[in-house]
């Protein structure tokens, strides 16, 4: 079959360790399913600042652009986070999203059976929780004009939140389509009682909703959604919202499940190109110790197979292998009940590879 | 003693019913403690739209301005909420906050003993949760310039978020002072890795922190805070944040406790003037049935005694009376385990009055 190109960005902290295990899984699926991949490593984040003086070197963007998909470990750490300039829209995470046109962030929040008790929510409340936050990723206040000016009240800092109809329509249509393939429920989250950008958002949602008559739509105000996620998490299917609301709500939703260390995510643009990464961060405190859990990254690879390549057989096989290894009782330290029985990052990776 | 003036805004839905019980409590404290109050009723919200054609009539503002404090029931309902213009900064809730200079919203989130099991969180996680969200209430994106313009991508809607140093400093100082009277911990929430207004926010917090050396300060990013509230609610004491983040996080925090129907809130400006209201809404579905729980409104009155008038004895007595009535097993429908034993709004009010 055709050779697929994957840009691999290991990043910082535990990023290189978890990505290494996902690469073993990649190699194994190649052997078993006859798919062919070509990987190219690229620098991004703190390690790129150290080696190239910028978090997003031009050559990294080039490598991503000529690839079919990107696998990302994690970026950032105390060493660099103090310099928030590295996260400005021109550079870093926001920069790579904009440069690659990744306007949609898909964050499934599901409960893993083996982690049922890890949530701070009561099991009966959590029962059946399986939702997906679709977050607009390249618009809104994170990308709007920003400046300071002097006033009689000292310095004033200004951020601008803008959305146009085209931006809203493409992400909302994508969310409707995702809902059609799931439980056919969509919650559109806004603050239409106050914000002009939210009023436009809601108008667009209402205008295109008739194209998806099989999807049950509700409009939820963002403050109310923060509450409802706690009160009735299992009643949500797909949640679509703008960039900042999605940032906050997707983290809340992930934490609800108790499974945050196991969750994968996809950032998509037009077409099948996507960037895949675990929801968890770079965990600098445990970096380099061979104790991090590689499962979220391995599941991000499975998501890439499913969404970018349409290799459902390989995706299914990886997900089944993860389930099998967990069912057999193997755990890394983060999910082990008896920490003395915890296995290493590499041991977990190898068990999953063997189970595929 | 001096006569204190209280503007009473019953509002919509269950507002008039719960406010009526709080007024009985007011009268009783007058008799028992010798304080003297003069109340004046004013129209606001949906009922004002119906009777005066505007949610915030000029005479309502006048009544509030010549009062020492405002007691508010609840406003809004399906009949009016569709007209979101009524919530614009010039009118409605945002309008009254701006016109009265109420720049600070204090929302305690505590767990009531009798509702320990009502939370969706596990009891052991919730244990000891007692936090206060201090939300900036008259700045930020809810009050910034808003407009639409035509672009090649259809209409574009723009909101502006602005904060100046004076606005930030006054709310943050208030939060530090509140923390000094509590467990001396302050979490300042921002998105300083992306937003300019958040960077200024954090700069101001860092600049004034040395004036409060006894308060332990942490900076938390808003997305992380949405997670940490779920993971470790009891570790928070005071949380201070800007308007929109506070809107979202205070609702999340209130819902965490399972006690949302019992929580009171205060909106303050410079000096002792304040507007006091229950955290819950107007609950139009149960309006007029004499089943609503008046406790959150009665506790809001107690908060008024404490914060605006400095009548700690009366505040203590009201809070003790509420505890006594609950301890004796009396419940309105919302908090009753056995709904057939639920008592009415007026019965609850009278029991509390009798217990003072
Ligand atoms: C680091 C930051 C810019 C980023 C965001 O808010 O988008 C992160 O929180 C995320 O959610 O991916
Ligand atoms: C109705 C709305 C404008 C208001 C707000 O967001 O401020 C409400 O949600 C609140 O929190 O008091």
TrEMBL record, chains A, B:
Family: Belongs to the isocitrate and isopropylmalate dehydrogenases family. LeuB type 1 subfamily.
Organism domain of life: Bacteria
The protein's required cofactors: Mn(2+); Mg(2+)
Binding site for NAD(+): 77-90, 281-293
Annotated residues for binding of Mg(2+): 223, 247, 251
EC numbers on record: 1.1.1.85
SMART domains: Iso_dh
A Pfam family that the UniProt record links to this protein: Iso_dh
Record carries keyword Plastid: no
Catalysed transformations (reactions): (2R,3S)-3-isopropylmalate + NAD(+) = 4-methyl-2-oxopentanoate + CO2 + NADH
Role: Catalyzes the oxidation of 3-carboxy-2-hydroxy-4-methylpentanoate (3-isopropylmalate) to 3-carboxy-4-methyl-2-oxopentanoate. The product decarboxylates to 4-methyl-2 oxopentanoate.
Limits of the Isopropylmalate dehydrogenase-like domain: 5-352
Cross-referenced HAMAP family: LeuB_type1 (MF_01033)
Gene, per the UniProt record: leuB
Uppermost EC category: oxidoreductase
InterPro entries: IsoCit/isopropylmalate_DH_CS (IPR019818), IsoPropMal-DH-like_dom (IPR024084), Isopropylmalate_DH (IPR004429)
TM region positions: none
Sites marked Important for catalysis: 142, 191
Record note on quaternary structure: Homodimer.
Protein name as annotated: 3-isopropylmalate dehydrogenase
UniProt remark on cofactor binding: Binds 1 Mg(2+) or Mn(2+) ion per subunit.
Gene Ontology MF: a single term: 3-isopropylmalate dehydrogenase activity
Residues binding substrate, per UniProt: 97, 107, 135, 223
Pathway the protein acts in: Amino-acid biosynthesis; L-leucine biosynthesis; L-leucine from 3-methyl-2-oxobutanoate: step 3/4
Subcellular localization: Cytoplasm
Keywords: Amino-acid biosynthesis, Branched-chain amino acid biosynthesis, Cytoplasm, Leucine biosynthesis, Magnesium, Manganese, Metal-binding, NAD, Oxidoreductase
């Amino acid at each position: 079959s055709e050779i697929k190109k994957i840009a691999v960005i290991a990043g910082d902290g535990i990023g290189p360790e978890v990505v290494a295990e996902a690469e073993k899984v990649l190699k194994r699926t190649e052997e078993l399913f006859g798919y062919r991949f070509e990987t190219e490593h690229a620098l991004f984040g703190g390690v790129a600042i150290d080696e190239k003086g910028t978090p997003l070197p031009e050559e990294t963007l080039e490598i991503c652009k000529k690839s079919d998909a990107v696998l990302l470990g994690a970026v950032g750490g105390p060493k660099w986070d103090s310099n928030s300039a590295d996260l400005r829209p021109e550079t870093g995470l926001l920069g790579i999203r904009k440069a690659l046109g990744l306007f949609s962030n898909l964050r499934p929040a599901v409960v893993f059976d083996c982690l049922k008790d890890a949530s701070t929510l009561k099991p009966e409340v959590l029962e059946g929780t399986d939702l997906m936050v679709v977050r607009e990723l390249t618009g809104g206040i994170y990308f709007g004009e920003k400046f300071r000016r002097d006033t009689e009240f000292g310095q004033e800092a200004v951020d601008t939140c803008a959305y146009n109809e085209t931006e809203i329509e493409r992400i909302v249509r994508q969310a409707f389509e995702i809902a059609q393939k799931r439980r056919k429920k969509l919650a559109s989250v806004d603050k239409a009682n106050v914000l002009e950008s939210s009023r436009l958002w809601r108008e667009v949602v209402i205008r295109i909703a008739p194209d998806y008559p099989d999807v049950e739509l509700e409009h939820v105000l963002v403050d109310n959604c923060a509450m409802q996620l706690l009160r009735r998490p299992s009643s949500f299917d797909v949640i679509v919202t703008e960039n900042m609301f999605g940032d906050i709500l997707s983290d809340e939703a992930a934490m609800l499940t108790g499974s945050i260390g196991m969750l994968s995510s996809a950032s998509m643009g037009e077409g099948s190109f996507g960037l895949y990464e675990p929801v968890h961060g770079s965990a600098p405190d445990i970096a380099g110790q061979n104790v991090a859990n590689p499962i979220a990254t391995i599941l991000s690879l499975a998501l890439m197979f499913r969404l970018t390549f349409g290799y459902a057989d390989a995706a299914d096989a990886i997900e089944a292998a993860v389930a099998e290894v967990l069912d057999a009782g193997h755990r890394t330290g983060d999910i082990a009940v008896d920490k003395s029985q915890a296995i290493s990052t590499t041991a977990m990776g190898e068990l999953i590879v063997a189970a595929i």
